[in-house]
Amino acid sequence: MPTDSATISPPQPQRERILAARALHWSRARRLILVLLGLWLATGFGTVFFARDLDHLSVFGWPLSFYMAAQGASLIYLAIIGVYAWRMRVFDRDFARMLGEGA
Q: Concatenated DSSP letters for 15-50?
């Protein structure tokens, strides 16, 4: 009777190592996501909330709040995406390294 490789479970020490590595990976990922979502919320809320206070400052004849909403927030969002991709790549490499140590 052929065995399905999906039903074969790894030995107990290896399984515990996999579960520990997975838990560490996702705790790091969740913390990163929460920080970046907080920055996203602060950027989106801050540009709208402080727009009137920044109207008296001008850059090239345009109010500073316009630049913050039009260009500044977009650059922050781009930076958030870049940081997320970079850090998740590092987390994924660490996860793969932790899995490969006991193999």
A: HHHHHHHHHHHHHHHHHHHHHHHHHHHHHHHHHHHT
